[in-house]
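Q: I'm writing up a methods section and want to include an example of the input and output format. Could you take the sequence below and give the corresponding predicted structure tokens, formatted cleanly so I can copy it straight into the document?
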Amino acid sequence: MENTELLCEVTTSASPHADIINRLLAQLDNEQDSDIRAEIIRKLGEYPEPQLIKKLWDLRNNLENESDDFVQYEIKLSLHKAATQKVLTPIGIDFFLDNLEVFQSKDNNSQAPKVLIDADLIEEFLLRNQTTLNREAARVMGLVLEGKINPYIGEMGLIKIWHNIKNLKSREDANRLIIELLSKINVGQVNLKDIDLEKYPNVNLKTAIQVEIARKYSLAGIITIRDREFIASGYPFVGSPSLFLQFLGKDTSPASIERTLKNLGKAAMEHEKEKLNLLLENEHQQNLFFEDNLLLFQGWKIENFEILCANNNLTSATVILCNTKTQERYTESAFKKGSVDALCTAFNEALAHLVEVKHTLKSIYLANLTPGQKGEVTVKAVVEYDGKEVITIHTHENILKAYFFAYVKAMIAVYAPDEYHPDIHSTKELTHLHKIGERDFWGLNFSQVNLMDSEANLFDAKLMGCNFSQANLSGVNLTNADLTGADLSHANLSKANLTGANLTDVKLDENNLTLLDGTILTNTIMPEINIEISGESRLEKVAQLLKHIDPQSQSRILAIHSMTDSIWWDNPLGQKFWEVNKELIERKISIQRVFILPEARNPKHLQVIQEQLNSGIEVALICQEKAKDVEGYRWDDTNLLISENLSVPRNSFTARRTMNGQTESGYISYQTRVVETDKSIFNALWEKSEKLSTEANIQEQLANLNT
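A: Here is the clean output for your methods example:
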């Protein structure tokens, strides 16, 4: 929905009211009488012209210079009127981009280092509360406001900020914010035609554009919260706010800032190495630490435990707890037929001295990881407490220790959750437990599993809240798996089968593209994600998603195609996409397509329409002029495709491509709000269009289209 609004905003040309406005502005500059000044300002509010809005904004920022309350009131009211009233359509981001020379600061002689500030970082500064990320963004923006950084922003980033503020607050708030930003930040613009995208084979378009802006304007560097996405770009002067501030230190002079930016690439690599080494060291020590000390919580540890088997088929188990500070001890024993039962019962008796025991052991399972007498085993314990389940896993060569330690970890998680440190579990543990029929792994950490070369079968698994960040899930069968709330950020999901899976509220990467990289998403309950993606990559992703439609799911395709360039269906991309359309028809999936036709038509238009009509697609036509205002949107330069899954609504998505002059923008969205909005706009355009049938004379209908 957001990108279409760019098409319906007015490009301001020479104003027919220029003489009136200039006269009013001249009177205002020379007038001292408050009543007359208020009258002039009121008149200015009736003309939404760039220089006038800029003048009112300057007056608004200097209200203290106006002694009369009524004049102050008129300034605020006129600014509101000028920034929100319609000329032909509402004032929006295109209005400001077309008049940059008016709104950009004309006296920018700053000698401070020129730095591209990522739009996402600016949004963090504007919208978040006092989170760590916000505090870092605020410090960077503080350097901007102090004049120690000469800031730049990409045009696409500015557009994104405007739309997000408009959607979250209002159009007026968005317009006011853009005026303020343009007075302080330079807008970097590049022509997509001038970018050699072959230089960026592994970088998304948004990142490539920002690198090109940095190079075009000779910027000292880029500060972004998406620093990982720049790794493959080959551009060395990029860093996150935290990394930049860490290496900048207390010296915030321009020279120090420039020096820090030049060293960011090397610093980022060293920082990642340190984090990896620390992770490996901590993992090794954590396992040994638990084994050697068997700490419980609140200063208590398991000092000793033992099991004795007698001839009367009873097993004796003893557990000794010791306070590490006071050396106070509790010793408890139990007699049961089974070793695990006896050991857990003795532990419960000892635990009762520390807490009120209210948990229930629901299940405890064992899976062999390696065969033989000395083979490793993994035990999974499921404990219920206060209506909630806690799951823990432990692997050991000693079967009894595997059982006992899994149970002990569950007790720590239940009675001292703040002192519980979850293990990072291995590929073997996950796959072997699943193989013996275990499906519930709620909340466990599998961030380092690599299932690419394994059996990779996790169908029907309950993986709610699990941590799969950085995990390699390539080719994994996750059919009908429940991944609600799981962390999939930076996980490799290529070729993974997520048919029927539940991805509600999953955590993804900044760009969310990993979810679409070859993953099978048939009837998947998708998260509310919106992915900005343009060009060939968007078409490839859309084609992939269309191929995964389940014919039994009562799905249908609703599409709008602007035929301002009828040659598109003949180029390799168009031909490939047409093959996908034909496959859908063969699979009995209905397609409705509205073609937007230019006034000057040629036989090629007729050929494309006839071919699609004959193939079984429902076709409707509308002329370019009539498509310029449908539900307040301009559609003559827009393509839209909605895949609606009536059986599994959360599997529905919409994809849009918009041309704004030479700039192409696009998205694939699974957001319910966006899908429903695009569907209602399609329906409005379909109702306004001329429907075709194979028996009708298409040439006659084309001739009558404008009448």
